[in-house]
Design brief:
- Pfam families: MDMPI_N (PF11716).
- InterPro entries: CHP03086 (IPR017520), DinB/YfiT-like (IPR034660), Maleyloyr_isom (IPR017517), MDMPI_metal-binding (IPR024344).
- Strands 1-2 form a two-stranded antiparallel sheet.
- The chain is 54% helix and 4% strand.
- A hairpin with a 2-residue loop joins strand 1 and strand 2.
- Helix 2 runs antiparallel to helix 4.
- With 196 residues, the chain is mostly helical.
- The protein has one domain: dinb family like domain (Four Helix Bundle (Hemerythrin (Met), subunit A)).
- The protein contains six helices and two strands.
- It starts with a helix and ends in a 9-residue tail after the last helix.
Length: 196
């Protein structure tokens, strides 16, 4: 599986989780302990937009911090968030389908980094936060094979920085032969068996 296919599959996971989340549960807690379900949905929606900008080498708009509500969801009824996020997911998928998106450096968060590293990080972001939304709303996420390994690789690449920065909880212990997604979740400080 190539990078673009892996990115596409990770976007599918994120969008499916958002589509399956009832807005009535947006105030519920999520495995991402700092965020409610609705906040994770918005964070994922924003991530889709930021990933598109990185692939296209577009600068972030003035005032974007990446931590606020996704700009395209502001003043939009929560019942419409899934459709808006799905449309953004398609734009992001198209942007990363271009092999050039993975080459060289791209701007992200005020600095430049290798585009392939941004892609890897966002693949992990989409699946892990997609799992957050799914787990909190009674959905199941099936991730195996190359996508699971890509998520694990992406999480492991940023986990030390994430724990140091406080946006990952301490690593959770799982069996060494646990599925790749479970190991990725554990490395990001999540209990793969979390339930609401």
């Amino acid at each position: 599986m190539d990078h673009a296919d892996t990115m596409s599959q990770s976007i599918d996971v994120a969008v499916a989780a958002i589509r399956g989340a009832d807005p009535a549960r947006f105030d519920d807690p999520s495995p991402c302990s700092e965020y409610t379900v609705g906040q994770v949905v918005s964070h994922l929606a924003f991530g889709l937009l930021l990933a598109e900008y990185a692939a296209l080498r577009k600068d972030w708009e003035e005032g974007w911090s990446g931590t606020d509500r996704a700009p395209y969801l502001v003043d939009v009824p929560e019942s419409q968030w899934a459709e808006k996020a799905a449309a953004q997911g398609e734009a992001t998928r198209r942007a990363w389908a271009d092999p050039a998106a993975w080459d060289g450096e791209a701007g992200f968060g005020g600095g430049a980094m290798p585009a392939a590293a941004i892609g890897s990080m966002m693949i992990a972001e989409f699946v892990v936060h997609g799992w957050d939304v799914a787990a909190a709303t009674g959905q199941r996420v099936e991730v195996g094979g190359p996508l699971g390994e890509a998520v694990l690789e992406g999480v492991n690449a940023i986990a030390p920085m994430g724990r140091e920065g406080g946006w990952f909880a301490p690593e959770v212990t799982v069996a060494p032969d646990a599925p790749a997604l479970d190991r990725a979740l554990a490395a990001s400080g999540r209990d793969p068996s979390w339930t609401p």
